[in-house]
Structure formats: C-alpha cells, structure tokens
Write a structure and sequence with these properties.
Layout (H helix, E strand, L loop, with lengths): L4 E15 L2 H10 L4 E12 L2 E11 L8 E13 L6 H30 L13 H9 L1
Antiparallel strand pairs: 1-4, 2-3, 3-4
Length: 140
C-alpha cells in the first residue's frame, strides 16, 4: 500500500516540566512508576491539502496526591495529503494512525529526554502506543 501523505516537517513546539520544589521532586522520584502517559491528537488545515497535526503527550500522576510533577510535550507534524484522499475516514486514519506511527520514535525520544533532563533518568515507557488499536476503539 502506498502512503497517501508526506511529512513535510516535524518539531517540538512546546515542552514543559513542572516540579514545585525539592520535596516534590524527592516524593515524585519515589512514585514516578505510578505516572501514566496520556495522548491527545488534533489537527487543522493550513492550505492546499497541508495539515498541521498536533500530538500532545502528558506524563502525570492521575491519583489525588499533593506533591506532583507534570510533564508535557506538544509535537507538531506538517503533512501534505495526496489529492486522491477524499473520504473523511481515510483522512482521520492518516492523522490518527499513519502519521503517529511514523513519528512515534521522535515522540518517545522527546518525552524520555524531557524526563531525563528533569532528573528522572531511569524512566522507560512500558510499551509502544498502539495507534491502530486506539483508532479502532475511537471508531466504535
């Protein structure tokens, strides 16, 4: 199957690491294994079949605790869609699956670098994000 899009550019638009104080850092260091990775994907048409895809990764503690750190990356991908793509479902699959699978290594490296530079060098993501499965769940 031939790709129906081309990635023109990709970059980290925004990156955030927030830890209030040293007590919070020490607390988070002990419980960072409880943090969860969240993802949000949005897009907007720029012009002439060119789309800006914004992928936001958030790594945070979902439990109600006082001391938390917060980590977020907004990764932008500029994509040109082929002329033959007319169906909304095809476009959604390109944005939510195909592009995400292609940029995944950059996403993972960016969030891991942010965590390491924030003082958490031993973090590993448990498993690769399954964009196909997320897309299918969303469709149901």
């Amino acid at each position: 199957m031939t790709k129906k899009y081309k990635i023109l550019s990709k970059f980290v638009k925004d990156m955030s690491s927030e830890t209030k104080d040293i007590e919070t850092y020490l607390f988070v260091k002990e419980r960072i294994s409880k943090y969860k990775l969240g993802i949000d994907i949005s897009s907007r048409v720029l012009k002439n079949k060119i789309i800006e895809v914004s992928t936001t990764l958030k790594f945070q503690d979902k439990e109600d605790v006082d001391k938390k750190s917060y980590f977020e990356i907004v990764f932008i991908t500029i994509v040109r869609i082929e002329e033959g793509v007319k169906e909304k479902n095809d476009l959604e699959k390109i944005i939510l699956c195909d592009v995400q699978n292609e940029i995944y290594n950059d996403l993972e490296k960016s969030i891991l670098n942010l965590l390491q530079n924030s003082g958490y060098p031993v973090i590993k993501l448990e498993k690769k994000i399954d964009f196909e499965n997320l897309y299918k769940q969303r469709a149901n």
